[in-house]
Structure formats: C-alpha cells, structure tokens
Design goal:
The complex is a heterodimer. Chain A is an all-alpha fold. Chain A contains six helices and no strands. Chain B is mainly alpha-helical. In chain B, strand 1 and strand 2 form a beta hairpin. In chain B, helix 1 crosses helix 12. Classes of the chains: A mainly alpha, B mainly alpha. The A-B interface holds A 27, 34, 50-51, 54-55, 57-58, 61-63, 66-67, 69-70, 73-74, 132, 138-141 and B 92, 131-133, 136-137, 139-141, 143-144, 146-147, 150, 154, 162, 166, 169-170, 173, 176, 191, 193, 198-199.
Chain lengths: 180, 367
C-alpha cells in the first residue's frame, strides 16, 4: 500500500515538475509548481515527517506560490510568448547544459566512481542537558528541541540570512519609490 | 479484519463530510433567518416538503422556521441552466470552485469535536486524524483556499472579479501573519515543559480544563477572532465580494452550481473558523470555566461532550452572522492598515510579553 502511494506521489511530483519547466504559459507553470510542492509534502507524510510536510504546504504552496501567481497575473506575462529555441545561443546553451547533466547522471550512477548505495543511517540522538533531554522523534517538540540545542548555530545563521534578505527587499523597493 | 480497518476510516470520513455539509446548508438558513430578525422581517417561511410539511401542527411550525428551505436552495442551484460566459479561461474557470471548497473540507480532518474514555481509562479525542501538528495543518491547508479566489478572479477574465480576487488575496495573506502570531502564546502556555502535547488541538483543549484561554489570553483571542473574520471574507472584511463597488467580486461571472460551491465554501470556512475558535479559546468540550469535565465515562458522556462542543460552535456561527448584519464594511485601505499597523504589532507585542512572563515564571519557580 505504502509503496503504491509512493510511486503515485513520486510520479505526480516528477510529471508536474516537468510540465512546469516546459509549459509556455506562466500561470500553468505556477499551478504545476504548486502541485509539485503538494506532492512533495505527501512524500514527506509517507516518511512520517508530518511537521516537514505541513511546513512545505504552509510556506511554499500557501505563501510563496500565492505571491508568484499574484505577480504573474498582475503583469500578465502570457502576452509575451516565451521564445522556443529560436535563438542559436539558447540552443547551444541548452545542449551544453543537457550534456553536463547527462555526464553527471552517468558518473553518479554508473562506472567505477558511482555513489555508494543508500542505507539506513543511525538516528542521531539529541543532547540531554540538565536531565530534560527530549528523544529524537517526529514530533514538533523534538524538532524544536533539536533546533535550540544541537543545531543552534545553523538556526541562527539561517535567521540572519533571512533578515538580510528582508532588509535587502525593503531597500530595493524604497529606492524604486524615490525614483518615481 | 483488514478490510474493516480500511473501510472504517472511509465510513467515518463520509459521515463527517455529510454532517459538515448539512451544517453548511443550515448555516445558510441561519444566516437568512438571523438577518431577517435583525432587520425586522420574517425570513424564509413558505417552503414545504409534501407529507412532512403537512403534519398538522409540527409541519406548520417547521415550515415557518424555514427548515425545508436549504433543500430548495440546493435543488435550485443544481437545476439552473449552466451558462459559461464566452470570455473565460474554461479550465481554470471550472477548477476554481473546487479548489475553493476542497481545503475547507480537508481541514476538518484534524478537528477534535468530542472526547471518549478508552477501556484503559485514558481520555481520547474524537477526531479523524489525531496528528501532532494539528494547528499547523489547519493553517497550512486553509491557506490553500486563497487559490480558489485568485483563480476565479483571473480566469473570469473581466475587471470586477479580477479586482475582487486581488483585494481578497492581499487581505488573506496579510491577516494570516497576525493569525499565526496570535495563537503562538496559546501554544507556548498549553504545551509547557512536561506536557506530552505538541501542537495538537486536543492538547490545547485538555489544557483548558480549569481556565479557558479566552479569560487567560484575551488579547490573543481578540486578534485571532478579527483575523478569522478577515480570512473567511466575512462582512466587516468582505473585500472579495463588496457588492456595492465590485458587483459580486470574484464570483461575478459564476452561476448555478459553481456559484453554489463558492457559497458553501464560505460557510465551510465560517464553521471551521468557529470550531477552531472554540477549540483554542472557549475550552472545546469542557463544560464551564472551573468545571472541567462533568460528563460520565460511557457513550452517553461522549455524546454529551460532542453536543456541548456543537452548541458552542453554533453560538460562534451566530456571532459571525450577528456581526455581519451589525457592522458596516471597512474601506480597503482601512483593512490593510488595520492588519499591518495595528493587529500585527499587537500580536508581536503579545508574543514578546508572554515570552517574558514565561521566562520570569520559569526563573522564579526553578529556584
């Protein structure tokens, strides 16, 4: 049962991701991207990572893509049709890119230097401080405990990066206002 | 046995969907009746089903209360001629009402609506899926509902629906922030160190056995209530429809059953918002503040807890309708400044304040 569900959702993710890339209509592309995100969330659910699945829906499908769709619809990108390999430069770049991907896939999965077979890694225990350690589970509490104990530095750095991005956005949009 | 284990959840889900849809159609009736009482009218009082409607006294009473009206409304939506305007983008035009309704129905999966005591004597919630991240699930899935409105406005390919869609999606994105921040203090208190509940709604209800959170966290409750009104596009905030300046808003170009789906989706969101407010702030199925759980441990007690929960939800639905027919609509810029300049700073201040209190409490009780 779980296997069948995995294949179904994986197929949905891959097909919608492919459609997103090749779709000439920007709104269709955005909708395919949403489907792909929701499918990824379903795959997380199959792995019993409910917290991650919900965050995927909440952040990407619920917030980021709404803004994407918003901008696409407001700008009405449909009218400017995407050029299809009309340019020789585009064609050349596409061929080189495809060749690089092919080489990467070949070297990763075949030949002498291919990647090691995936295996189950042992679960890393959370640190236990002052006798209040929370064991590593899929619960949200365990996630929070890990974030604020073991992964404190990456957590803070990510927060700092997001803050920098936010300030950057404010600065850019303010500048635009002054010019006009 | 294995087949039974697979079929039972499906049967439960179907039961819950039918109860929920029934509630939706009767809250439409409640809306019409309450609005007519507020405006000094009578409201729907003519529709009558043969046989049942002709029982001597009971039939007249039910007819006067408009009990049969939802059936007539539903049939009217079904049997109307289906007109598709020539200028719409057909695929998304059909998809939009479905996308509007589906998230509202999905969120009820994690909603606990009663409690039972299992043979081991442990109190368990009556819920389809008791997951650890219930509140995040509701916030996440209900945020997908905005796609229904956006797609409806865009695919209608005409000015007023487009304006309505843009307004309402901006409004929903803005108020989601205040909503999420307002309920953080609730969970900070309810899942204190030592409690086994994370972000599940059952844990919040269990933590309100002695004191309801609306008494304990009135500011959170107020911000959350305002944000729910904005998220459900109900009247003080119904930027999506505002019929005086946008004809009908995002569903101007929709008719017959497709309009019916939008209509049902609005009430589904209202019911979910009410139920969520009851769970988070009004103590769920707990009897009164101070009197936690007087229900007995048997099936009868379970039914009573469900009924008590439902009566609280009905009160909240009435409150939604009451507000709709009492307050006038905000202007669009007022909605935006209320969301960003008042509710959001208040919610952040509330969060910081509660964090400080919890830190101080921890500091003094540890020593």
């Amino acid at each position: 049962m779980l296997d069948i569900l995995f294949y179904v959702f994986a197929a949905i993710v891959l097909v919608s991701a492919l459609l997103m890339v090749v779709s000439p209509n920007a709104v269709n592309g955005a909708m395919c991207m949403i489907v792909s995100f929701v499918g990824t969330a379903a795959l997380f659910v199959l792995l019993e990572a409910y917290f991650l699945a919900i965050l995927q829906v909440l952040v990407y499908a619920g917030a980021v893509m709404v803004l994407f769709l918003f901008i696409i619809m407001l700008l009405d990108v449909d009218k400017s049709e995407g050029s299809y390999f009309k340019d020789k430069l585009t064609l050349g770049a596409a061929i080189i890119g495809f060749a690089l991907v092919a080489i990467l896939v070949c070297s990763a999965f075949a030949g002498a230097n291919h990647l090691p077979e995936p295996g189950l890694m042992p679960v890393l225990e959370n640190p236990t401080g002052e006798g209040v350690g929370i064991p590593f589970t899929t619960s949200s509490k365990s996630f929070g405990y890990s974030l604020f104990s073991k992964y404190m530095l990456p957590f803070q750095v990510t927060g700092f990066l997001l803050l920098a991005a936010m300030i950057g956005v404010i600065v850019v949009s303010k500048k635009h206002e002054e010019n006009s | 046995m294995d087949i039974l284990a697979m079929l039972l959840p499906i049967a439960f889900s179907l039961t819950m969907i039918s109860v929920f849809m029934g509630l939706c159609s009767y809250s439409v009736l409640a809306e019409r009746k309450v609005s007519s009482w507020i405006q000094g009218r009578v409201g729907p009082n003519r529709t009558r089903i043969p046989l049942v409607g002709h029982i001597p006294i009971l039939g007249n009473l039910l007819t006067g209360l408009g009990i049969f009206q939802p059936a007539a409304d539903g049939l009217k939506f079904l049997f109307k001629e289906e007109i598709i305007p020539g200028h719409v983008k057909v695929g998304y035009y059909y998809l939009a009402p479905i996308i509007a309704l589906a998230p509202a129905l999905t969120t009820m999966v994690v909603l606990p609506f009663g409690r039972y005591v299992d043979p081991a004597g442990v109190v368990q919630p009556l819920v389809l899926a008791n997951i650890d991240v219930g509140i995040l699930f509701i916030l996440g899935v209900s945020s997908l509902g905005v796609y229904g409105i956006v797609l409806a406005g865009w695919s209608s390919n005409s000015k007023y629906p487009f304006l309505g869609a843009i307004r309402s999606s901006a409004q929903m994105i803005s108020y989601e922030l205040a909503m999420g921040l307002a309920i953080l203090p609730v969970f900070m208190w309810s899942s204190a160190p030592g409690s086994e509940y994370g972000l599940s709604l059952f844990g919040v209800v269990q933590s309100q056995q002695s004191l309801w959170l609306i008494i304990w966290q009135p500011l959170s409750a107020l911000i959350f209530l305002v944000a729910v009104f904005a998220e459900t596009n109900r009247l003080p905030f119904d930027m999506a429809e505002s019929e005086t300046d946008l004809v009908g808003g995002f569903h101007t170009e929709y008719g017959c059953f497709k309009f019916g789906l939008f209509f049902v989706a609005e009430y589904a969101h209202v019911i979910m918002g009410s139920a969520l407010f009851v769970c988070l702030f009004l103590g769920g199925w707990n009897f009164l503040p101070g009197i936690a759980d007087p229900w007995s441990d048997n099936v009868f007690g379970t039914v009573l807890s469900v009924l008590w929960f439902m009566s609280k939800v009905f009160f909240m639905i009435f409150f939604f309708i009451w507000v709709r027919w009492t307050l006038p609509r905000f202007r669009y810029d007022q909605v935006m400044s209320l969301g960003w300049k008042i509710l959001l700073p208040l919610a952040i201040g509330n969060l910081v304040f509660n964090t400080l209190i919890i830190a101080a409490y921890d500091h003094f009780t540890r020593n």
